[in-house]
Structure formats: structure tokens, C-alpha cells
Amino acid sequence: MQSRLSKQYMPIEGQPLLAYTLEIFELSPDIQEVVLVTPEEDIGMVRHKMVEPLGLSKVRHILPGGSQRQDSVRNGLAAVADHMDIVLIHDAVRPFVSRQLIHQAVLEAEKHGAVAVGVPMKDTIKKVDRNGWIVETLDRQVLWMTQTPQAFKRPIIQEAYRRADESRFYGTDDAALVERMGLPVKMIAASYENIKITTPEDLLLAEYLIKRQRGMT
Q1: pLDDT for 146-158, tens place per residue?
Q2: What is the H or E stretch that residue 162 is in?
Q3: Which of 161, 163, 164, 205 places its Cα 20 to 30 Å from the Cα of 68?
Q4: Which long-range contacts does 4-8 make (Cβ < 8 Å, 24+ apart)?
């Protein structure tokens, strides 16, 4: 982002990016509690400047993260109450997840145990070698770009993380940890607007989408 301010705290239309994401889960009837994982030094700021002023009552825990994303998720999973049946894991910088997608992910996780969300690839995908030569043109009809939230029955994802931690395996997403146990993961359709904010251009798109939601465009 070329900024000293972490992207999850960057303001869009007067509100930090993270706040938009948290509000979606706060308003979802499918969500009973939220475990928020942040850099340890940010915990007080997030609680006093975001969670409390916005009345985000479902945020029950704010925990310190780890050195990598998977370490942070593991910390969060440890705080999930045993009576919770389904766990959703979501990127803080995806503020355009819909309540409908959250609901669908929960329903599918109840049926199948493990769910990823994503969208089909639009572009032709080439596999290249280390020197930049094309090795293969992949069939885009079977390729999906994965998003979040990913949803799991709690015992499944906790066991997947236990095994990954035991063998010091790091995957690119949470579903990969379930896949390596030999369990199937269901992919369901999300939205191309469920973007992850990673570049300055994404911020411009996010500002447009928020204005459109508010009827300002």
C-alpha cells in the first residue's frame, strides 16, 4: 500500500476498512460471536476506537496474531467456544462480503463440513517455468479464484490446524489444511465484488462500491 498505516485501518468514506467488515458480521443473524485477531500492539486501539464506539457486541475476543496468517488463525480458533458448530474464517480487508454469502456458507458447511467460496476465472491461465516460458495452458473452466469467508464444522478445522501445527505445514488458505487430511471441500459461488483490498487501486474501487451502497453514485 506504500503507507505507514496498515491497510485494515485505512479510512474510506470516514470509516476504517476493518469497521465495514466487522459491521457485516455484526448484522448477520447467522453469526453469534466474532473473534478478532490483530497485531498485539493494536488491540487497545481497535477496542477503544472501533469496537466499542460502533457497538460491535458480537466481538467477544480481540487476540494478538502470529508471525504468519496461519498462526493468527490458529490463535483465533483456540478462543472459539466448544458449543459453536460452525466456524467462518474471513479476511479483515474483504469489506464487501454479503450477509447472503455468509448465510450460504453456513448452510453448506452444515451439509458438507468444509466450504470455500470463490469465483470462476475469467482470463486464460498459463503455467510457466522459472525462466518465464509457457509450459501449459490450463483449463479455466475448472479454475476458481478463492475468497473468504471459508466455513467449517468446528471439529474439522480445529483438527486440520492441529495436524498442520504438528507437522509445521503452512498452506495458502484454510481449506488447504482440510484438503491435506483427505476430506472434501465444497466450493460455492461468491461475488466478483468480494474483493480483497491489497493495492491503492483497490482502495479507489472500494470507495466507489461504498458510495454505491449508500446511493451516492
Answers
A1: 999 999 999 999 9
A2: helix 154-167
A3: 205
A4: 6/39, 6/42, 7/93, 7/197, 7/198, 8/92, 8/93
Extract the C-alpha cell encoding 146.
478463492
pTM tops 0.90: yes
Query: 187: Cβ–Cβ under 8 A, 6 or more apart, which residues?
Result: 115, 116, 117, 118, 144, 146
Q: What is the pLDDT of residues 35-74, one digit of tens each?
A: 999 999 999 999 999 999 999 999 999 999 999 999 999 9
Nearest alpha-carbon partner for 9 in 95, 99, 98: 95
- Characterize 167-190 residue by residue with b for buried, 16 or more Cβ atoms within 10 angstroms of its Cβ, and e for exposed: eeeeeebbbbbbbeeebebbebeb
CA pair distance 92, 35, nearest whole angstrom: 11
How far is 161 from 165, CA to CA, in rounded Å? 6
CB 89, CB 174: distance < 8 Å: yes
* Average pLDDT score, the chain: 94
